[in-house]
Amino acid sequence: MAKNEDVFKKIVSHCKEYGFVYPSSEIYDGLAAVYDYGPNGVELKNNIRDYWWKSMVQKHENIVGLDAAIFMHPTVWKASGHVDAFKDPLIDNKDSKKRYRADVLIEDYIEKLEEKTNKEVAKARKKFGEKFDEKMFRETNPRVLDTQKKIDGITKRFADLINNNDLKGLRSLIEELQIACPVSGSRNWTDVRQFNLMFSTQMGSLSDDANSVYLRPETAQGIFVNYLNVQKTSRKKLPFGIAQIGKAFRNEIVARQFIFRMREFEQMEMQYFVKPGDEVEWYEYWKEERVNWHQALGIPKDKFRLHDHDKLAHYANAAADIEYEFPFGFKEVEGVHSRTDFDLSAHQKVSGKKLQYYDPDTKESYVPYVVETSIGLDRMFLAILANSYEEETLEDGSERVVLKIPPLVAPVKVTVLPLVKKDGLPEKAKEIMDTVKNDFMCQYDEKDAIGRRYRRQDAIGTPYCITIDHQTLDDNTVTIRERDSMKQDRISIEKISGIVREKIGKGV
Ligand code: GAP
Q1: CATH number for the 87-196 domain, one of 3.40.50.720, 3.40.50.2300, 3.40.1410.10, 3.30.40.230?
Q2: Model confidence over 21-51: pLDDT tens digits?
Q3: What is the distance in A from the centroid of ligand 1 to the CA of 49?
């Protein structure tokens, strides 16, 4: 774990040093859980966004896009249940005066038990070597079984307490498990209280309650309230989807792990409207589709896992998380939720406007059910960076940090480098740059020795470097260096775009 924590710290400082992510308002010591994206970060983020949009909207004929405003009528949030139910249970430690999420304290406790089991498994694997059968070990080892029984018991109790909104029960469980404050080490806890995560602000010149509006905590409600507008104008029949990308805001109590949990973040959400009764089939379909989407980027399969929710959000009857193994453990990147007709029915009731679909096949009108896929763009960004970051010792003993970002989403695709800053090489390099930049995001770099320039490009994940040398002036050939293998080939200038396009087209 210590090693992983070190890696995570290195990734965070790499992000700053190479222009991916900066703390917000840093000259004023930053703003907790708010971050800004630098020149390379914004490119990577745009590319992930495009990749999602293309795979959702462009490749599905029955999914269309929407860009709803961040501000919405405040009644939206009353009807959707967010005013009453979008809350986290808070607990304070009286000695350290630190505030925690009660559910996170219990989840961390469960995670520690899981770590204990993983350590047992690792020890046994070391002892038995190739013959080791992990499944059998987990199913038969008494210590592992004992810990698993404990985990199952706590998980079940925890889910019941959360689903019943039992705050006293949560406090008792924290006491029973003897969970101590990580700062003071004491178990001197306050009662558990509910804390609404929505930010509110005033609209117009009066600052009374009547003018209060919320910053949306999810983009989905913009889709729900526009569902009939979109269905009618795009003339879609069920099943069909509406996709949207945009900012969401949550006043997170426990803001930690860099851009994993932010107060301002971006979501890429898709609501799939289906006939009531078909939702289970579509829920299973979208879980599989979304897992495939992640894997198509080339991140190894075993870095992801599907985790069914024990505690359901107020709007869902089934939900699963797609989790990525970050350096700080498996954590949610995306949620797939079966939201039933909860939201549309609530908006229909509160607004008094019919939100029904007329089914031309059955000649019936009904409120559709909804299956939602919801991925955090910032979390996907972090997953890609964490998966890409590698420290390598090369054959000559030197070291390099390389981001093996999938070429499709790499911030810069090609960098053009004149070998030396004289003899007409910069002019020739700029000529090439002017052509290639029409096709791809390119950089030009003539400063420092060529080796240092390659390292700089490795550090931002550029898949190809094109070097212009004296031979280029004679025969119009260049060397092309591939990031991961560092292999160099001599090719003619006309071939550059084709080679790069082929690599990017593969998606990995
Ligand atoms: N519309 C459903 C919804 O908002 P959610 O599970 O609360 O569901 C969906 O959020 C995704 O949004 C999460 O899987 C995560 O990737 C991202 N997300 C949620 N809270 C976040 C935060 N504070 N910082 C960054 N990303 C967040």
Answers
A1: 3.30.40.230
A2: 999 999 999 999 999 999 999 999 999 999 9
A3: 15
